[in-house]
Design brief:
Domain Glucose/Sorbosone dehydrogenase: 5-298
Distance between the termini: 38 Å
Helix content: under 10%
Strand order of the largest sheet: 1-2-3-4
Protein name: Glucose/Sorbosone dehydrogenase domain-containing protein
Order of helices and strands: EHEEEEEEEEEEEEEEEEEEEEE
Structural class: mainly beta
Shape: globular
Pfam family, one: GSDH
Length: 331
Amino acid sequence: MGSGFEGGIKSIAFHPDYDTNGFFFVHYSDTSDASVVARYTVSKDPDVADPASGVILITVAQTTTIHRGGQIQFGPDGYLYIGYGDGGPQTDTNCNSQTGDRFQGKMLRIDVDQNVSTPPHYGIPGDNPFGGKGEPPAEVWALGLRQPWRFSFDRLTGDLYIADVGQHTREEIDFQPASSSGGENYGWRIMEGTTCHDPDPIDPSCPAQTASCDDPSYTLPILEYATGVDGNCSITGGYVYRGPNISMLTGRYLYGDWCSGRLWAADNSGGPWTTEELDISLTNIVTFGEDQNGELYLANGSTVYRLDGPSELFSDGFESGDTTSWSSEVP
């Protein structure tokens, strides 16, 4: 497994029927720096995987060490969604996001319950938007992404939120309603958020060279904020809060910025999308998590925190060996 910049394990997703089949999926970088999605099976020990059970579903060769994306997550439809960044370099000079014959800069959607025992160990959902139409590949669900970090589904509505890291001007949140039939083009590298990116004229075969920034086929973000202002530099996507403990955040999408450590809650219950900054700061927010009750967690480079209120984070002290908050009682 590769361990360089943006290397290592990117994401793990448990099969919806994990209790029955013991399958879980891992997105990681291998020793050649390729992005790999593989399936493993739990061993007889419920806390240990069987390393010999691994089968590779998808391998994507990478030419740089940046913009790998890497999250995998099962949607409410039971299909596995895979987020890929444009693969770099800066400004996507390889035109990966808008070029149809590759996975970089795309969201994939595959059926891991097909071809379980035979390669490629997955199938194509019959309603994928590009199935049987040549380019993009049939696995592709959406395109025009730069560095999706991270994406999530609203557990109540099934809506999809994608936080996409920007180049120099915009950090954005893309949205796909549960009713969508897929095929959205979120615009990169022609667009960066709602602004015209004006890509460098390096690859004359790139569709971005001739595409218009006012093309109505692009799906523009529901929210964006400026890169390089107030310490912001890189969005980290979270979840819509559906837990029972923080009523004032119910139905609001939470996200943060890796550089500034700021945390926001977005809401559209009153019409247009609005966002409010929470009274929480956490340096280097790298990811969010959601438990079975809908409570949310945040992690930076050293600690996992639970969100206990609009201005309160709880750390269990596990990483530092501080057991003062531990209890032998199970709630």
